[in-house]
Amino acid sequence: MVIGTHRPTQVLVDRLAIKANIIAEKETLTDDTDIFAVIKADAYGHGLIEVAKTAKEAGVKGFCVAIIDEAIAIREAGFSEPILILGLTQSKYAPLLAENKISATVSELNWLKEASVLLKKEQSAPLSVHLALDTGMGRIGFREADPFLETINFLKGNKDVFNFEGIFTHFATADSPDDTYFKKQMAKFNKLMAVVVDRPRYVHVSNSATSLWHAACNGNLIRMGISMYGLNPSGGEVALPYELKPAMGLTSELSFVKEIHTGDSVGYGITYQAQENEWVGTIPIGYADGVFRNLQGFKLLVDGQFCEIIGRVCMDQLMVRLPYKMPNGTKVTLIGKDGNEVITAQDVATYAGTIHYEVTCALSERVPRVYLN
Ligand SMILES: Cc1ncc(COP(=O)(O)O)c(C=O)c1O
């Protein structure tokens, strides 16, 4: 992907905010509980390696990613901390995982059987394994004690190739004000855990929401994702127990300003027509950069004043109605603060009918990440 370094459109990432969020979370935890920073999907759009560095400086003990390539990228950048892949990896890559000291999530006994053949053949170092329990998320993991226990025994019987490092589950409704389903999942987790005689190094259940609102359930590892980036996992539905500082800003500039006249239209599909003479600004950012096409009507900040997106968002540009003629180069804020006004990733998400996770992850590589502090 070509990065637009000669265009005034930038994602700003405030490293101090990330650190403050990690430190605030750490203060709520007991000393025997570690934090792994969840930095999958390019650290939710904030930049994999820079966030890894920042999170490490703030005291996280390891990292979680979604896919093996993300884990290898972290190793290639020189990090030696534990890395857990939260998703499933094909068993044929077991030796590659072992070679790079990357921990695998395992959901099936058969996976271990296939992996053990390859690991023995390649005389690999032991592969660290976390067993996933599906307590109600319905995504990956053991659902019954039967194959779960047999799998633990298989791990124990193959210590030359496996290091049984963890057991975890993931909640579907930890960010909801209604904890009925959460409690059901926790009960199922406790039931499955009852068959475990020797606990592995890590037993973990907490993403951001679980640690924020159900901290009593925390095991000894927090998989801290969205709250590290300063966003409330519930999108604001549930109040935060401590303040979070949003780390991401998105800014650009007016690249072209013109006056249009009553009846003139703007954009593809002529979905906007001027009701009077008005000033229109063009901004060099579009849906190829991750600004959703359905944001027509959303208000951005131009020089600290809310201005409506008029016409459809194009691939690389969008247009706004200005209150008066403003010069080319005027600052535009799509996410963040300008003067007394602020636009949050949640504001964008609410307008677009999605969640703030999708807003930050959608920002494409084409937009350079600029690190502050
Ligand atoms: C298994 C697992 N744990 C932790 C996380 C981090 O979640 P959050 O960003 O809500 O903290 C995720 C994210 O999707 C996940 O899939």
TrEMBL record:
Record carries keyword Isomerase: yes
Group of enzyme by EC: isomerase
Keyword list, A-Z: Isomerase, Pyridoxal phosphate
MF terms in GO: alanine racemase activity
Cofactor(s) named in the record: pyridoxal 5'-phosphate
Active site: 40 (proton acceptor), 268 (proton acceptor)
Chain ranges passing through the membrane: none
Positions of the Alanine racemase C-terminal domain: 247-372
Catalysis: reaction(s): L-alanine = D-alanine
Entry-linked HAMAP family: Ala_racemase
Family: Belongs to the alanine racemase family.
Protein name, as recorded: Alanine racemase
Naturally occurring in which organism (per UniProt): Dellaglioa carnosa
Name of the encoding gene: alr
